User: Which sequence fits this backbone?
DNA sequence: ACTTGCAGATGAGCTAAACTCATCTAAAGT
DNA sequence: ACTTTAGATGAGTTTAGCTCATCTGCAAGT
């Protein structure tokens, strides 16, 4: 190889900082090493890169041109490296508020315990969703999604706080929190199917819709009524006895959680996360 | 330092060529070295960069992203390095056809003899002129040029082939080749001043203009007449006895050869060339 | 099915590149 | 004039990076 990349790195740093001493600090080397590198470089290129006026140095014209190119080149490489490095030691997941709040965030610590060295970042919101290196967990119509991308087919049931859970009769004018998505492309929660399945078509229900399942669940936990929601979201709360189902039978829906291009996520962290989330939701 | 730049270089090459073997050839290393570098890199980044299917390798998604950035980064650096390296070992000069053909090119070999390790490239033409790392030697009006940029104030005289050189009388209807620049911004060659200086205002001259001094000089050398041209261009031919002056007195002109921003050329080659060309034209 | 050849992985050992230390020089501040 | 600071220089030391030898697994030829 003609010129040493380390020498170039030293030069780039010295050129940018205008001092061998500072470059040495930046690269955790001695000023001597920088000096050697640069004179080596100047020798190989038979060009002088710095003017030396005693202890003061200044780039020559050629030096300045080279510095510009090396700085840009190394910056490009360093940025990519940073991204990749984060991809190796962290998984960045974006998902719906409800799944994040009810399932993923409460279990986040368990993931990190089970996978030391991989940190899990969970975020919600549109803006985060489609940037590169982010693993999006979306909620959608199973019929419109690549089957191999699906991580959980959703079922629904009615849940309530322990005291509320088993109403003597479904005709007492019970408040039932339901969900009405803002996004009209999403299939409706299968409330009529559930009423049929449980032979409660005639029940006297006071339905109160929210635009996110999360809110209805919180209302139910607080004892303000029952909630018709997905079993996935309720699971953890049921296990913790903060919520219980009403001896009713759950019904399947056409909703599912999925990860677009699931199989294209091949980093260690992403693979572990996908295994873990599968166990969490389906296990 | 976190990751080794040589490892990145190895990775970049392997990614681009799709083979450790070919990368090894490109970098003059053994395939083993490439393999070590890449597994080192994968270890440090805790990411796999290549899929291995037996003896076949393919980039992972992460690998492809990193490869794109490293390729671009290193390409930028390598290009700059190439340019600088040429700047150190070669001077690239552009100038007028006349100066190139009559003065610089004939003496090119002498420069390279006197400066081993520096090669001199001489080119003419508009397109070459203002690209970076090119040292342009231009012909122009001394009054409009930064004095420190001037390398030669031009004088003019009349020359002819040895047989032709001393006409018995200036009234024999002599053919005189002159120059009429295409570029009207250039001062005219000082023919009237020369005629006055030599008291030949009344001479019977058959003036034939060309748009470059070169052509008139060639005509004169071929014995077709005399030429009114700059002493710089004639000098070498006079020394070689291919041309001689007519016992007339030369006159100064406002024309000069100059190098824009002459003092900003600080490469070894450029400095040597400027010293040399000064000696060549003025010495 | 067996052989041969090829591409890459792995581990040990060696070499040269890269780093540091000690010493020196020149300029700038005190 | 004295001290301090930034860098140059040369010799000595460390370690990153290379090669060699060996091993594995696939694919193509016989």
Assistant:
């Amino acid at each position: 190889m003609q010129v040493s990349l380390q020498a170039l790195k030293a030069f780039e740093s010295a050129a940018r900082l205008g001092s061998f001493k500072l470059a040495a600090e930046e690269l955790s080397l001695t000023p001597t090493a920088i000096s050697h590198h640069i004179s080596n470089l100047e020798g190989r290129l038979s060009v002088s890169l710095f003017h030396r006026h005693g202890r003061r140095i200044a780039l020559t014209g050629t030096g300045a041109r080279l510095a510009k190119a090396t700085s840009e080149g190394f910056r490009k490489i360093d940025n990519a490296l940073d991204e990749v490095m984060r991809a190796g030691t962290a998984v960045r997941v974006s998902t719906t508020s409800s799944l994040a709040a009810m399932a993923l965030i409460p279990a986040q610590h368990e993931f990190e315990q089970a996978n030391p060295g991989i940190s899990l970042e969970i975020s919600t919101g549109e803006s985060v969703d489609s940037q590169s290196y982010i693993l999006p967990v979306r909620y959608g119509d199973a019929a419109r999604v690549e089957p191999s991308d699906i991580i959980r087919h959703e079922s629904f049931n009615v849940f309530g706080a322990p005291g509320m859970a088993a109403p003597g009769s479904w005709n007492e004018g019970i408040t039932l929190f339901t969900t009405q998505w803002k996004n009209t492309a999403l299939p409706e929660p299968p409330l009529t199917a559930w009423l049929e399945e449980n032979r409660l078509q005639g029940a006297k229900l006071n339905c109160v819709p929210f635009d996110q399942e999360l809110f209805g669940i919180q209302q139910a936990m607080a004892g303000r009524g029952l909630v018709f929601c997905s079993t996935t979201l309720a699971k953890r709360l049921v296990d913790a006895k903060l919520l219980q189902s009403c001896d009713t039978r759950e019904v399947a829906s056409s909703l599912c959680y999925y990860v677009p291009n699931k199989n294209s996520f091949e980093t260690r962290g992403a693979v572990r996360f996908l295994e873990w989330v599968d166990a969490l939701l389906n296990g």
Remarks:
- The mean pLDDT of chain A is 89.
- Chain A is about 45% helix and 25% strand.
- The first strand of chain A starts at residue 50 and ends at 53.
- Chain A has two domains: 5-84, 96-282.
